[in-house]
Amino acid sequence: MREAVQSQAPGILYQNNSAGNIVTGGGPYGWVEPERYFDTSTYGSKHFGFHTEIGMPVVSTAASTRAMVGEDGPESPIGGAWCHHDWSERGNQAPHTYRAAIETRLGTARDLDDFTRKAQFVNYENFRAMFEAWNAHLWDNASGVMLWMSHPAWHSTVWQTYDYDFDVNGAYFGCRSACEPLHIQADPVQWQVIAVNHMRRALKNARVSAETYDLSGHRIASTRHARADVDPAASAEAYTSPFTDDMPELHLLRLTLRDDRGRVRSRNTYWRSRTPGALRTLNQLQQAGLSASLTQVSRHGEWHEATATVRNRGPWWPRWSGCPCSTRTAPGSCRRSTTTIICGCCPARPARSPCPGRPPPSPPAARSWRWRATTLPPSRCGAEQYRGDTEPATPLRRRGLSCVGQDPTCISCGRLSS
């Protein structure tokens, strides 16, 4: 065939498969340390190039996993039903390494709910790293990367960003974070901070900042700032935010990218630890006392608008709760957010705790943000679908709706399940 193409159509590229010649493929299909995605040897090549297949095991939410096992099936331990749905230790997915990564980082799970909750942490961390590795070398020696795969044809425990029930998981949110049009990130090896611009217009005079916090929300180092100009479809290095010896074994690195008008265009938070086991400290953090209510739903032609109020009723600031999404509100206060009805949440964002020796700060005024949605035809499961004006179409599951807002210019966004 190659000879026929060359003789009959000189100059035409003949690409006989999706993982050879001018592109690469072949995984990895199992779990690897997030920093390995930034090393070209992981892909058996000297360059990132265009890589057509990459993925890893992905355990979805507890509700979806129960649907996979069936009403009469045992929830745990992992057994026959899981293996029937691709949890095969003899395949490329190597789920035993994925399970080990979850347990090394966050401990052995008590039950199915605990295991699926902890799995979302690993899902988010790794899928964000997959795309950020290509962002870091964008159009230098990297041109693109494709997942194997976005979703499965039936209930599965591997290779998915949303599952057979159309439920999204940590992998989806990791992808969404890394692939936002304007993005701020750091590589997990040298902690080089990089601004990424996937837009058609140059980003001029942007401001990059890096803050470090302990798990109580106290800033542990001075905030670093830098100005950056990023060409269209390019990335630009700002500075290095090193993990120094005097920093806690586990802390948060929070990066922020603002445009020339001071608007926040991207936020990204990393859990930095000296050893994977140090992340188990996250299990000891107090749960935030949050409540949410859907206060108003309106329709304007083809657009739907929902207003949600999220209240923090606890004595402390919200802390990590096993899912990389959170609404930041002061203790005893509330925040209103007008959102498109779509599935999703946003990366966790650290907030500074009030000093124990001082009274808590006054509750901030309620703030609102607006997103619009267009009604789409009913999905396979019968739930309506909505499409935001800046978000891809995302189907909603029949078992419940999720209301979320995320906008690159807002300081916070929230999630409400009803």
UniProtKB/TrEMBL annotation:
Alphabetically ordered keywords of this record: Hydrolase
InterPro entries, per database record: Beta-gal/glucu_dom_sf, EBDG/EBM, GH, Ig-like_fold, Mannosidase_ig
Domain Mannosidase Ig/CBM-like per the UniProt entry, residue ranges: 191-272
An example molecular function term from Gene Ontology annotations: hydrolase activity, hydrolyzing O-glycosyl compounds
Full protein name: Glycoside hydrolase
Database matches in SUPFAM superfamilies: (Trans)glycosidases, beta-Galactosidase/glucuronidase domain
Keyword Zinc-finger annotated: no
Top-rank taxon, per record: Bacteria
GO biological process: one example: carbohydrate metabolic process
